[in-house]
Amino acid sequence: MFPEIDPYYRVREWFGFVQEISHEGGPVPDEPLYKAVSGVVIANPFAGRYVEDLSPLTAPSASLGTALGARVLALLGGRPVQGYGKGGIAGVNGDQDHVVACITTVFGDAFRAGVGGGAAWISSASKTASAGTPIDIPLAFKDELYVRSHYDAVTLTVPDAPRPDELLICVGASTRGRIHERVGGLSRDEAIARLSN
User: Fold this and answer.
1) What's the domain range around 52?
2) How many structural domains compose the chain?
3) CA angle (93 as vertex; 92, 96 as ends), nearest 5
4) The domain that contains 161 carries what CATH number?
5) Residue 1 falls within a domain, yes or no?
6) I want to staple 61 with a disulfide (CB 3.0 to 4.6 A). Which of 22, 38, 50, 107 is the partner?
7) Is the pTM of this model over 0.85?
8) Which tens digit of pLDDT belongs to each residue from 143-186?
9) Element (DSSP H or E) covering residue 102
């Protein structure tokens, strides 16, 4: 059973998928890369009008972060999360800041805790678009910003969302760096060593 979200958010549907990548044309590594996305489609209470104060979307958003974190972790089969990201799409009667209000630090801290913690800020992407528009959720290493091997993305497309008066809020997570990463930079092990000093 997944955590409930605050009743302020009127949910129409949940969406999730997992991608397992064995190789990108090179040697097959011992460990595949798993990337997962979890999303929720909610009514946009501010669709069709300009409202200065968006805090009603932000205040209960920890419940969204917790629930989406639990769902993306389940999709990964309990595998440890190394990379993460967040984002969303506002339907065309809303605006981009309606999404941003849902995925601020309140949301991010809860999501981070739900997937096993993390020291780095969470990359995000947001936009206003019609149903079926894809969104690339940026992924980065959860404990350090400059681990190049973990710069990645996972694409989410929900064919029937967001409708004009809805918001699609989503998170992504990965279990390792890119499958054939080989362009150098700070390694995950080096980042962990720096953090432990």
Assistant:
1) 11-196
2) 1
3) 65
4) 3.30.1330.110
5) no
6) 107
7) yes
8) 998 899 999 999 999 999 999 999 999 999 999 999 998 887 87
9) helix 96-102
